[in-house]
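Supplementary Methods. Inverse-folding protocol.

Structures were first reduced to a discrete structure-token string of length 60. This string, shown here, constituted the complete conditioning input.
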């Protein structure tokens, strides 16, 4: 079953609240999230191709 998430919210506790206002840190967090989403999308594509191949009988 595929799950599609439109938004994600979280609560962050930091020992240094000013750190959360650092544009470099925010940019790094955003980059890490984008990389993980790209990995997940790639894996979802692979799973879909595997299911398609299994249904058509090709590749066996």
């Amino acid at each position: 079953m595929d799950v599609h998430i439109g938004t994600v919210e979280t609560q962050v506790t930091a020992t240094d609240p000013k750190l959360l206002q650092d544009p470099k840190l925010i940019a790094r967090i955003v980059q890490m999230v984008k990389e993980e989403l790209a990995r997940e999308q790639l894996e979802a594509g692979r799973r879909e191709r595997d299911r398609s191949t299994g249904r058509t009988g090709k590749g066996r």
